[in-house]
Amino acid sequence: MAAVYKFKPYNVGRWVIWSLFALVLVFAPLVFTSNLSITMLAQMGIAIIACLSYNMLLGQGGMLSFGHAVYTGLGSYMAIHALNAVTDGKLHIPVSLLPIVGGLAGMGFAILLGWVTTRKSGTPFAMITLGVAELVFAMSLMFSEFFGGEAGVSGNRVTGQAFFGITFAQQIQIYYLIAVYTFVCVALMFAFTQTPLGRILNAVRDNPERVEFIGYNTQRVRYSAFIISGFFAGIAGGLGALNFEIVTAEVVSAGRSGAYLLFTFLGGATFFFGPIIGGVLMIIAFVLLSELTKAWLLYLGLIFLFMVMYAPGGIASLIMMNLRVAKFGKLRQIWTSYLALGLTAIVMLIGAGAMIEMVYHLQLNSALGDTVKFMGASLNAKGVDSWFGSAFIMLTGLGLFELARRQFAHDWGEIQTEIEKEIKRRETL
Amino acid sequence: MEFFIISMLNGLSYGLLLFMLSSGLTLIFSMMGVLNFAHASFYMVGAYFGYTLSGWIGFWPALVLAPVLVGALGAVFERVTLRKVHPFGHVPELLVTFGLSYVLLELVQLVWGRTAVDFPPPEILRSSAFTLINHSVDGLSFVWGAAPAEACTAADASVRLICSPFPATRGFMMLVAVLMLLSLWLLLTRTRIGLVIQAALTHPEMVEALGHNVPRVFMLVFGAGTGLAGLAGVIGGSTFVTEPAMAATVGSVIFVVVVVGGMGSLSGAFLASLLIGVIQTFAVAIDYSFLSLAKDMGWALSAATQENSFAKLTLSQIAPILPYLFLVLILIFRPKGLLGTREG
Fold this sequence. Notes:
Chain A has helices at residues 12-31, 35-61, 69-87, 98-117, 122-142, 144-147, 171-194, 196-206, 208-213, 218-244, 254-267, 274-292, 296-310, 314-327, 331-364, 384-428, and strands at residues 153-154, 246-247, 371-374, 377-380. Chain A is mostly helical. Chain B is globular, with a radius of gyration of 23 Å. Chains A and B meet through α5, α11, α13 and α15 of A and α3, α4, α10 and α16 of B.
């Protein structure tokens, strides 16, 4: 073998980004110190792992699964049973390794169930995963020994031998455990995208027929990816079991699976970091938005609909598109349109939001009187003037938004052609 | 015997209701390649429309009007959103309908509340269609409508006498489903628009080249499919219960039906809906577990086995998972479905 000198520069950008990620994980609880925010941060870490493992199927493999909660949920159940076994002294593993037990369980179930589901791809795959999810959820109500019935299975994480004095008695300790797992899992899942299997998985997503022609078995590729995804999903489930110390049948429900799909897509399935945004948004929506308004599921559904229609790449693709514009120094030309777009959208949303809140108020708590507090103003849910005012604000906002949108679409198109031209020009240099 | 007949009829009527839903789903899928995830939501919306309209104009006009409204809603949805994402491929199309199912559920809860509403069937359908009388001496006899009380009470205590009524709503459900099946079949095979639809199924470009507006045909098919779901909703809502959870209970079962029958095969969907309807109804009615089987066979079981929750499960308890088990078995042994032609 002749020694060939290969020039391999350090990928500085990558080192910077991963160090920043680690720093954010370490310092986030020092900035947001309240109990609520530390609980939320812990849940965000779990959601990030779950959404990334889901995106291994959706974004990288083109497999739309409606049953991802099966693997996170069964991982949770196995982890909590293992935790109880540790408490009873039947099992001798440190508590900090229990998420691995969840991961192995998720992997085991993915091996078992994935063999059936990955026989198909595309729409049939989606329907079969839905069927399997329903199967597991229906079973969870039948076998109360394992699933704990209505009450669920609870455990106590302060057990076993303390490791360097870490007993997980405080929330901050469990946060750092989750942070370590999050960092390692995110790194591993990123590494997976660079492996030959990760690459061929992308090919299976884009053109399965051609992959068959070059001699790969697409079904086996999907199956392998499914198993790996199940492993990480199980780790997320195991962390969830340690975090909440209780596991109920809700963790394998169809609603949970739907949430993973929704937020992974909102974050952006086409970029690796999209689901990280999605996981953070998921916890914000579940914890904060649901406190703020009763109509949050409606808002979420509407946002999702518009996202699928107008930005199928999710938030991540919006960020990347604007980064490209900024890179070519064109952001200055468009920021006024952004401002107009944002302001008119806010006006429109205030009007629409006021009306939706009034309807919800009339439907759900009309016993509390007719006054609705909305953004500091009190509206009379049965008064004509409140309704007229809200409708007027919404329609004005809608009209102005449409005007701003046309201007923006025009500017945006112009900038994109300019960028294309610039790229062509640079190529000829 | 009368148990068997009544259960069979109940199963068939439930299966026919499933077919009313899955036919629309299959039609839309085979034509546009779109799996309408919100199909069961349209079923729910149909039930609520029927509930409100029957309060205003009576049940029978509502039975006609509510499906038309639901169909119009579906057509508008296709025109406004689905056509926009069509160029992006099938996954975004599925996702749009998935998002719609969230929005429809929330809107229904917003307008009609989170609890069940009282949507009774009309006067004429409230009684029994017929009654089977099983007399241990005279044998099985049959009476139209409800049986008179004296026919169901045995004068002699040694005579075993059982009356099994069959509800008229169930009979009506079967009648509507069969009529719908027949008219759908006639429409698709005997009329001009049916031929255009069939042609657009396989050769959309060619049909377009011949001067037919294929996107409009798609819109009509989507509207018709959701309209059928709305019709099933009015009937299902008045027979069973009208509540926001009704979409979720029937939604996953009709997906199972479509996969088991073979993706895009209308006759397969028919067969699969009847099969699943009958299997599920019989399973719910039979209170029989592995433990009682062992007892009947005279096997001696240890105490541990008798306490085992797996052995204690009765057939009626595992009824909810039977459709999904069936799905998994079909996928293992016949991946293209019962009457499917393509392996997708």
